[in-house]
Design goal:
alpha/beta; two-stranded antiparallel sheet; 12 strands; 44% helix
Length: 343
């Protein structure tokens, strides 16, 4: 099992003063977090893509390139690229360039995005939400196969043999499909034979087993081998010295963001009791001491029929940068060996 971290570069106000940290300081801390993850032997670090004031990740390839220059081994990925709102040619060029800078450590997780701010920002219609993604994914995959490409679609100008450069260091850029809870998305990823990254940010892991089975069945029907059909999980997670310490470090930022976003979507404000339930044995939060988190990761993998990668979305703990870096150290030094030994 590969183990990593996903960050949305959250920038959160101090809960006591309400003051925001400097965006420059937050970005420097984020790059330091990637360096720590590389040092302690984690497998992958992902940067999300949002176009909102709470996050600094609107240009993930730029952040990843900065991290590539300061790291040696860790794989660097988007988490996720909102492909529906992007030009696949430009996305390919950016990540091929990242792959050259990192000497072959770049990956992509692509999806439609759970936030819709990118669509009006780039002049797109949310009524085309799925059609945009399907067409642009088709072009992105074709770009990985062909340098001089001929292609035609509905949402961008046709390509008539133009060369797309640079080419990546790797023979092919790894591309994962990021999904939420839409059955069609799971089935599409399986039919294409692409690895699947499932965002499980609430509820339980068990709830996603039928959807993961749908992915594997679609892949099998399309003739793809079981080894090709990899499943990853993106989950809320944080490691502390104790279960209580982990919860205390993670909860304030999580509650702040969940309350703000929930207000936009008509949700009730979250309580500490709800958080503790999610962090408990039946919930989908990987928050706690190293032994707690490792055991829960292994149960999640068993529940979902085998997981190739788990990434921790811990950026809501950015209110405490020291605790964040210590969590990364614990994840690499204490949690990862337990999970890897259980292969």
């Amino acid at each position: 099992m590969e183990i990593g971290i996903d960050s949305f570069a959250a920038i959160l106000p101090d809960p006591m003063t309400g003051k925001l940290p400097s965006a420059t300081e937050r970005m420097a801390d984020l790059i330091d977090e990637v360096v720590v993850a590389d040092r302690v032997g984690l497998d992958v670090f992902g940067i999300g893509e949002h176009h909102r004031g709470e996050f600094l990740d609107s240009a993930p390839a730029v952040i990843l390139a900065a991290a590539a220059a300061r790291t040696k081994r860790i794989r660097l990925t988007s988490a996720v690229t909102v492909l529906s709102a992007a030009d696949p040619v430009r996305v390919f060029q950016e990540f091929a360039t990242l792959d050259l800078i990192s000497a072959g450590r770049a990956e992509l997780v692509v999806g439609r995005g759970s936030f819709v701010e990118a669509y009006p920002l780039f002049g797109l219609d949310t009524r085309d939400y799925d059609d945009l993604f399907a067409e642009k994914l088709d072009l992105l995959l074709a770009l990985g196969e062909t340098t001089n490409i001929t292609w035609e679609g509905r949402f961008r100008s046709a390509l008539k043999g133009q060369g797309v450069f640079p080419r990546p260091h790797q023979p092919q850029l790894p591309i994962w499909i990021g999904v939420g809870g839409t059955p069609q998305s799971f089935a599409r990823a399986g039919a294409l034979g692409l690895p699947l990254m499932v965002a499980i940010i609430g509820g339980s892991f068990e709830r996603f087993r039928p959807l993961v089975d749908l992915y594997r069945e679609a892949g099998k029907r399309a003739g793809h081998s079981a080894e090709t059909l990899k499943v990853g999980v993106h989950a809320m997670g944080f490691v502390g010295e104790t279960d209580t310490a982990a919860g205390d470090a993670f909860f304030p930022g999580w509650a702040h963001l969940t309350t703000k976003i929930g207000r936009e979507r008509g949700w009730s404000p979250p309580s500490r009791q709800q958080f503790e339930a999610m962090a408990g044995p039946e919930g989908a939060f990987l928050v706690g001491a190293p032994d707690t988190v490792a055991a829960k990761m292994l149960r999640a993998s068993e529940t979902l029929g085998g997981v190739s990668r788990i990434t921790f979305q811990m950026s809501t703990a950015a209110l405490d940068t020291a605790a964040m870096k210590r969590s990364i150290e614990l994840l690499g030094a204490d949690v990862a060996p337990i999970a890897r030994a259980a292969r």
